[in-house]
């Protein structure tokens, strides 16, 4: 059985001072009908991600910020780590330790959470050891302007109520638009073109491909999965043309040629761009390729680190296509994993991977950062389609994005 | 990007006394062009599994037996843990520490490895600290009747040679027959029926389904993926009947009715049974259901622990079908994860899950254990097909297995 992907889990971050009992709270949530699926331990100052199931929210990712507050005060590293967590948080829980009560730590973190408009639950833990009167609870709550719930992670008191609060607070739009479900009707057939290259791990499909098949099944549609070489034969084997052909971006040229012009064609990257982020911003980024000048700085950003192939898309192919498009050299920089570099205003373009390992909140945050800095941002798939001159056709299922390209 | 599944990785176990430098050796192998993909830390006495890539073997699972030898001598727990590791080992590496040289530990472990006919490499580590003469190396080698290679995990001396030895020793039949690749020709279409029930994690497909799609693509075939409700429509949408329909076992009845009788039909469980183990043994186990008597002990064994649904197949459905088949009560016991209980001879039937999380070596070992104890063993999928009277049809692609059923 495979886990729900990280990017499809509601991200719940637990904040609190070192002795507030964050880990005990997570354990208490876990033991109470929440199955702990997996643990990815971080280094000392990295947060720990715990994949769990909370019904009826579904699969969640609990972010234990245990490591973050170990330095005692809001040092630079601590602030940076906290900001990184906040950039991917869908729902925050602030845990207050009753011996010291509300301190500057809680005030700061609540301010940061509120600044981002994130839903937030506040609890006072350890009420079995430090019984907290309703008056104190209410005065601390006023201090933070946040309703506080008294709990004991140790005895389990208040845990069920906290879960109900979390369920109520959980935003219902955190998942974004469907990957493909809203583009099909029951009974429709969609052809998925899945090239098998050296980068494809043995015995597996790439995550967005699996998610697309699943979304089609969830919407009573049928997925025809085929390599690019067998596409023509597969199309000819269908009595009626499919509703849509979705291809890996790297096979756009061949698939475009083999797909009859009356059949809509798009790519996994474009589906993911819409599902995870903001297709319109990325289409505007694709248009900006035309304005690149020789020597311009271009940032290539990948959401995860992966084993690089000789003909790696981020390292080799995209720089080659952009150079060909500009007709001269460009000044490339690369970054992967964590976050953007501190000063992105110096770039004339940011090229981002599809972000299959990032959650939507973090992808939207990166797009917002680029917008704020006035830097166009495009993703791999849109870039590939654009430099090969087929982005317009690939946007046919998305008329608004197509209009932005036409402007 | 998804990892290669655990079950599709060559399992390499590293054995040696506590101070032999097993972990350093694994790190040395890792830093030398081997990418560490993930780490699953075990408890103190559990071995640690490290998913890696060793070219040209491909994806491997290194089993670090660090915890096993911590008790100092071959105590009962240590022996049990060692045996459990050996049951899933495809290739063994014995690491000798040169200060003490060959001891009873090495003699015992080499004997056990040899008893199982497993390929084995032997190394003497730490030769940077304890230079070992060719004479000593050869005399220790004679003691174990095993060619020994002097290495230093610390300096890297001999690591490349060890990798060449490992690659040479790696058995080439460890993967077993293909999942489905040998049943299709290029251009064939196979319909995969994938029900979406509550047990299917959001955004995912079950591992054998993904592996089947991938194997079809690897063999230039086309996969039509559909839910059971849309199967009829999908079949009608094809100009020619598919080569094969593969269904989830739980939908055998409906899919059998909706698939024209001239189209071959089988299940993911049957494909997996052949790929991972021994289809003929399991078919003989299915036949044994007919001989069950009221009150007989039946063991239901699952290879992994998973979140149970209300109508769980192992806990609820299979006991119900078996009771209906016998027409009376049976005495069920359940086991999951690790291994079989010590005394399996008392059971009249073992019902095993498909074993998608087990590697082939371990599945073959479990089948061998059942055969030795004279206990018939069947898996979930074959049992379901048999109690519903459609096993004969589902075995059509496998004539030998079909003959065993007819006997």
Q: State the distance separating the first and last CA atoms of chain A.
A: 47 Å
Multimerization state: homodimer
Q: Can you give the mean pLDDT of chain A?
A: 86
* Approximate helicity band of chain A: 25-40%
List the helices and strands of chain A in order.
EHEEEHEHEHEHEHEHEHEHHEHEEHEHHH
Please tally the β strands of chain A and state the result.
15
CATH superfamily of the largest domain in chain A: P-loop containing nucleotide triphosphate hydrolases
Structural class of chain A: alpha/beta
Q: Provide the spatial order of strands within the biggest beta sheet of chain A.
A: 2-3-4-1-5-6-7
Tell me the Rg of chain A in angstroms.
24 Å
Structural domain count of chain A: 3
Low-confidence parts of chain A, pLDDT < 50 over ≥5 residues? Answer: 32-44
- Largest interface: pair, residues per side: A-B, 54 and 54 residues
Rough outline of chain A: globular
**Could you please say which CATH topology of the largest domain in chain A applies here?**
Rossmann fold
Largest sheet of chain A: 7 strands, mixed
